[in-house]
Amino acid sequence: MTETASEARPTSAAESKDLVETLKAEIVRKLTYSLGKNPSVAQPHDWVTAVILAVRDHVVDVWQRSTHESYQTGRKRVYYLSLEFLIGRSLADALNNLGLTGPVAQAMADLGVDLGAIETIEPDAALGNGGLGRLAACYLEAMASTGVPALGYGIRYDHGLFKQRIDGGRQVEVPEDWLSFRNPWEFERRESAYQIGFGGSVVATEKPGEVTWNPEEAVFAVAYDTPIVGWRGRDATTLRLWRARAMHPLSLDAFNQGDLVGAVAERNRAEAISKVLYPNDSTPAGQELRLRQEFFFTSASLQDLVRRHYRQFGKFDNLPDKVAIQLNDTHPALAVAEMMRLLIDERGLSWEDAWTITSGTISYTNHTLLPEALETWPVALMERLLPRHMQIIFGINARFLDGVRRSAGGEGVDLASISLIDESHGRRVRMAHLAFVGSHTVNGVSALHSRLMQETVFAPLHAVFPDRITNVTNGITPRRWLFSANHGLTKLLTEVCGNGLTDDIEQIDRLAAHADDPGMQERLIAIRRDNKLKLAKVIRQETGVVVDPAALFDVQIKRIHEYKRQLLNILETIALYDAIRSEPYRDWAPRVKIFAGKAASNYGTAKAIINLINDVATVVNNDITTRDRLKVVFIPNYNVSAAEIIIPAADVSEQISTAGLEASGTGNMKFALNGALTIGTMDGANIEISERVGLDNIVIFGMSAAEVEAAKRNPRPTGEVIATTPHLEGVLDAVAGGAYSPGDRNRYAGLVDGLRANDWFMVLNDFESYRLAQRRIDGLWANQPEWWRMSIANTAHCGWFSADRAIREYAQRIWRVPAGFAAKG
Ligand code: 26V
After folding, report:
1. Architecture of the 478-703+765-799 domain
2. E strands, 698-749, where?
3. Which pTM value belongs to this model?
4. What is the pLDDT of residue 6?
5. Where are the chain's structural domains?
6. Which of 6, 43, 161, 285 satisfies CB 3.0 to 4.6 Å to 99 for a cystine?
7. Where on the chain is N6-(pyridoxal phosphate)lysine found, per UniProt (predicted)?
């Protein structure tokens, strides 16, 4: 293989001086000729853009070589279809992977600019809501790092996830505008545009059995490509995002009649498709625009890959050998019907051949079992918007149900439960069933989640296809979440575990031998302290609250959701506050309770929880009795960049979802890898973390998934739970009575009434167990050598949660594509 960017990194001082000079020249060239700015008048924003453009050239070198190579060798390629990619900033990651962090910083310093100070100008690309979108971003980077040829397909939203401001303790949503300064990473591909149809009718052609779909409306999907470079610049993947453009930007008829609004109506309607990301995690919006988004990007992506394949091979029967399509949740589930349509209607294949190819190519990842989160679309809406696809779905369903009925034991099967159409709620298409039936493999994202898929939501389908569901536990990229985010720890780790660590993160287990070494512990304490000082500065800037870096930093950062139980955390915080006030002279372990996260704008309960956290913060932070022992902060506008600062500074990681409801979690992995101790339930990937770090290195509490199930079937009266749980009544009464909202005493009456009426998420049931677990944490914190022994065990045993490992599992067991690079680089 040819020498690549980071392998070509300088070995001598002279070479590195040359490199810095070259980079300086490249950056100044971009500033001058691409931005038209003279260095003497360039603003920080111009400098960042110039650096990105210069670095992008290095990425492009890698990208073109690897794309060319995979094309030449005809290797199988992975197409990752995802409505969300939560990328965050890209510069630091790209520099890090190219081995250019130091040289570029030096080049900028020579030019009189502090790179660290201006990097934060790059906007966060927030084209995702949370875990599902961040996972897609980690996987694109990990595919580039493990040498799996891949393309990620999604939508280039003009506006990503809203920005969050906290105003008087309440969340206010502000539109996000990441493209306002253009996006220097992307390449617009005007030549790669596809027509996407909607509505209209299906008519028979003169050939018997053949039909054509005549859409009434069509929009263009225009491609924008961003290269994602992998570790050591050995390979790169492509993120191809689609933008909707009108076929006719202006109606001249309307214009000539003076109807200026009507003249751009078609354009507005078309371009609405890629206007904004749905903040879709309170309830699926169920709106037509969302369905249009889903079909828009699915169709564009499939047309693109089908065309590319045909151009290269001139046939379709080998599609499953050359193409693996991964559906990131059901959002692209229409791929099953669209692939059938493309192969049958546009390429003339038979139904049977098209089905063999479609189901041999597609696989599907499920990311949640919450019944209210499973997508369904009204048949009537589908018939109106996608009449041909609805026909195809009926066709798939009829053949599927028929096949089951005729199979051995088929008479006993409850066909209504496996049907793609839910007839009990006014005829709706079950997108998860469609994805399941149209895929060769379906996976969950943690061991527990995959097992629950088999036992609950997909049990009837699992009985028909017992080999289809498998598990691939999620992973995170160690490049961003350890090497980039935590320089101090990375330096120590490479010293202790060897330089090979950065190529094979699982070598991190060599740290385990040093768990009891006081010298090692001292160094880790110093690193954590530095990270906490940085975070304390951010907290002060963002909230005005001064926190002591010597205190225990206890962190819960994630989307605000009842099942994630921020409410349990804040209620226990109140109990702790009461306890400190009633025994002010006890030596309480000083704590800072740190929260961050966004609530969907239409999710009232989640917003009330944010409000409560802020109200509790106001009371606690102004109370002189608890001043040195307890602080509560809510950091506004949680995003990827905030996570990169917060996680390396955490002592405790809160992973306290109601067991059975968090499919995996990935924040839990990032914290543990950075050495935080987890307080968590036996849920999602927490279980696998506990298995790897050992039960004596994690603080587990609460009901198991099975216990939650049993309690839901046979609920204990909440009055009884409250009466038998110490401190709980007092805490609830205080919140409900307005002790934390003196200006509006009724503010939380509804929230507390809700809990008393129905403790669906087991907040009351798990309260005491959680409180005791927190007091166990206090005890551990008091014994610092023990604490740091545990912390070391967490870092040492979490290398397995690398996205590289996850990608290798997908590559071997689902995609059947060889990873280009072995574990060691
Ligand atoms: C959607 C909805 C909509 C209805 C109400 C409840 C609800 C809850 C969650 C969602 C989002 C579902 C998709 C998702 O983001 N799942 C997350 O995927 C991560 C990556 O696999 C995983 O780590 C998280 O546990 C899982 O919640």
Report:
1. 3-Layer(aba) Sandwich (3.40)
2. 699-700
3. 0.97
4. 43
5. 1-73+89-123, 75-87+125-474+808-815, 478-703+765-799
6. 6
7. 670
